[in-house]
Amino acid sequence: MVDFSTPAPTPEEMERDREIGRVLFAGEFNFVFGAQKLGQLPDPILPEIAFAGRSNVGKSSLINALTGRRALARASSEPGRTKQLNFFELADRLTLVDMPGYGFAKAAKAVKEDWQGMMFSYLRGRPTLRRVVLLLDSRVELKASDEEIMKMLDRAAVTFQVVLTKCDVPKPPALAAKLREVGEIVRAHAAAFPDVLATSSTTGTGIEELRAELARLANPV
C-alpha cells in the first residue's frame, strides 16, 4: 500500500501551492503525440499525469479548464471516439496524458478488452508516470467499469486520485453524500490517493486545487 501519511497543508501553504499551480498551467502547453499502439509512445522524459475516465465523464472539458484553453483537448459528441493516448507537454516541466475513455456501450467487447489491455500495459510499464487522475461523474452512480479500473490501477501499483466532475449540477447535500460515498470506496483501494476532489469545468470549482495538486508532481523550475 502507498503511504500517504503527510501533514495537512496550512492555509498559507495552500495559497502558495495554488499560485504555483496557476503559474505552471499558464505556461506554454503543446500537443506532442497521439499513440494508438504502445510502440508509438514518446520517450519517457518529463513526469506524466494520466487522465482516465468513463466516456462522457467530462475529461476533455476538465483538461481544457485546467490549462485555460478552449479546445486543446477535443470533446467528442460520440462516446468512445478517442482511440489513442494523447500527450500534451506543459512548460517543459510536466506531461498530461489524455487516455481513451472506457465503458462506452456501443463498442464491441473485443475493442473494449484491447483498449483496456493497452491502458494496463501503459500504466504498468511507464517509468515517468506519477499519478492517474481518475474522473467520476458526480451526477451518476459508480459503474462496474469504474470499479474495474480502480482494481486495474491497484494491480498496476499506480497511484491514482479520484476527481469528481460536473459538480455544479448536484445540490450541495447530494454532492456531500457523493463525496462521502466515493471517499469510502477509494479507501478500500491500495493505490488510491485519499483526497477526493470536487470539480466543475463550467464554474471553475476545484480547478485551482487540482492545479496545485498536480504542480507538486512537476519538475522543479
What does this entry look like structurally?
Pfam families: MMR_HSR1 (PF01926). This is Probable GTP-binding protein EngB. Belongs to the TRAFAC class TrmE-Era-EngA-EngB-Septin-like GTPase superfamily. EngB GTPase family. Keywords: Cell cycle, Cell division, GTP-binding, Magnesium, Metal-binding, Nucleotide-binding, Septation. Its cofactor is Mg(2+). This protein is of the alpha/beta class. It has six helices and seven strands. It has a seven-stranded mixed beta sheet, with helices on both faces. Strand 6, helix 5 and strand 7 form a beta-alpha-beta unit. The longest helix is centred in the middle third of the chain and has 17 residues. The radius of gyration is 16 Å and the shape is globular.
